[in-house]
Each structure stands twice: as C-alpha cells, then as structure tokens.
Automatic annotation (TrEMBL):
Signal peptide (from-to): none
GO cellular component: cytoplasm; nucleus
Keywords assigned: Cytoplasm, Nucleus
PANTHER family linked: INTERLEUKIN-1 RECEPTOR-ASSOCIATED KINASE 1-BINDING PROTEIN 1
Similarity annotation: Belongs to the IRAK1BP1 family.
InterPro entries: IRAK1BP1, SIMPL/DUF541
Subcellular location(s) of the protein: Cytoplasm; Nucleus
Protein name: IKBP1 protein
GO biological process: immune response; positive regulation of canonical NF-kappaB signal transduction
Keyword Cytoplasm among UniProt keywords: yes
Length: 135
C-alpha cells in the first residue's frame, strides 16, 4: 500500500520520516519529497513583500526628513508600481527526475521569491510645529 502525507513544515516532515524509518526499518520506502506552494502561501508572500516595501519606503523617507530637520507625517498616497515573482515553479519537477536532484536542488527549485516596488507620498511637517504642539 502507498500512503501520501502533505506537510507544511519541512522540519516536521523530516522528523516523521526519521521516526518511520526508525520504527519500520527496511519494510518502508520513503519517496523523495515533492515541494510546491499553495495559492494561499503565494498570496501571503505577495502581501508580505508589499507591506515590507511600504515599511522600507517609510523608513527611508523618515531618514531624509531627519537630514533636513523635518518630521514625516501621514502617508498621502501609496501605490504598488511593480511586483516581480520568480522561482517556485510547480512544474520544475517535470524537467528533472526527483531522483537525479539532490534535496538541496529540489528545495532551491521550489523556493519562491518576490519583490515589490512602491510609490509613496508622505506629508512633511516642520519640527518647530511639533515642538509648539508639545508645549
């Protein structure tokens, strides 16, 4: 008989495989893992990358404001300009037999990357206005 397990945690997969081999010995055969990303995981990656890009933009704008003695205010406009995705090809296993690739190569081929470029406009406040409000 054949049993198929789906894991979302690589470490847990390794632990279960090791336990099965330890308990069942040579009576079990473990096939090489097949790595893929669920649509939900890819959506989470896209959101995380965009939020990180906005955070990076805000930090850079704060540094520039500090250089000119200004304070960064609220965002007036945030626009996602470009999103790029690469790697993580679900069909990459078709081009190479899983047996011909090392585990590291299979992980590398299945790893998904994304980048996001955002455009943001922030309100800029003079520092003297902030000091007056604090008094």
């Amino acid at each position: 008989s054949q049993v198929c397990f789906i894991f979302s945690d690589f470490g847990k997969m390794q632990n279960v495989c090791n336990l099965l081999i330890e308990k069942l010995g040579t009576s079990i055969t473990i096939s090489p893992p097949h790595f893929y990303h669920t649509p939900e995981a890819i959506d989470n990656l896209r959101r995380h990358v965009c939020v990180t890009a906005v955070g990076n933009t805000r930090r850079k704008a704060q540094e520039v404001c500090r250089l000119f003695g200004q304070a960064l205010g609220k965002p007036l406009l945030i626009k996602e300009e470009e999103t790029k995705e690469w790697g993580g090809h679900i069909d990459s296993h078709l081009s190479h037999s899983p047996d011909s690739q090392t585990l590291q190569e299979r992980i590398e081929n299945a790893t998904a990357y994304a980048s996001c470029r955002v455009f943001a406009v922030f309100e800029i406040k003079g520092k003297e206005n902030r000091r007056n409000k604090l008094l």
